[in-house]
Every structure is written in structure tokens, then in C-alpha cells.
């Protein structure tokens, strides 16, 4: 669980920042909404990847 959290922050923050440059986010509400939507996708992909890695190397 800690691995998922750390990897999501380290990898996800730059991705969200890079993707946000292509959108107009004039208010804090729109910025938060964008970060949550993209962050949820990144968190899910990270969790699936970490799970697959752990399952493969546990055997």
C-alpha cells in the first residue's frame, strides 16, 4: 500500500501537471476537479501495476 501511494505521488504529480497545461483551468474548483479525475486514473493504473508485480514476484 505504501508503494502504491509513493509511486502515485512521484509519477502522478508530474503527469497531472503536464496534462493540465493543455486545458484552461481558470478557477481552483476546475483545477481540483481536473486533478481528482486524472489522479484517480493514475492511482488505479498504479495499483493494478503494483498488484501484478507483487503477484508475479510472490510465487
UniProtKB/TrEMBL annotation:
Q: In the UniProt record, does the keyword Membrane occur?
A: yes
Instruction: Write out the transmembrane intervals.
Output: 34-54
Q: Which UniProt keywords apply?
A: Membrane, Transmembrane, Transmembrane helix
Q: Which InterPro entries match?
A: DUF5822
What Pfam families does this protein's entry cite?
A: DUF5822
Tell me the protein's name. Uncharacterized protein
Q: Which organism is it from?
A: Halobacterium salinarum (strain ATCC 700922 / JCM 11081 / NRC-1)
Amino acid at each position: 500500500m505504501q508503494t502504491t501511494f509513493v509511486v502515485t505521488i512521484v509519477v502522478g504529480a508530474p503527469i497531472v501537471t503536464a496534462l493540465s497545461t493543455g486545458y484552461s483551468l481558470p478557477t481552483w474548483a476546475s483545477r481540483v476537479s481536473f486533478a481528482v479525475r486524472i489522479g484517480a486514473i493514475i492511482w488505479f493504473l498504479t495499483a493494478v501495476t503494483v498488484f501484478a508485480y507483487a503477484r508475479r514476484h510472490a510465487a
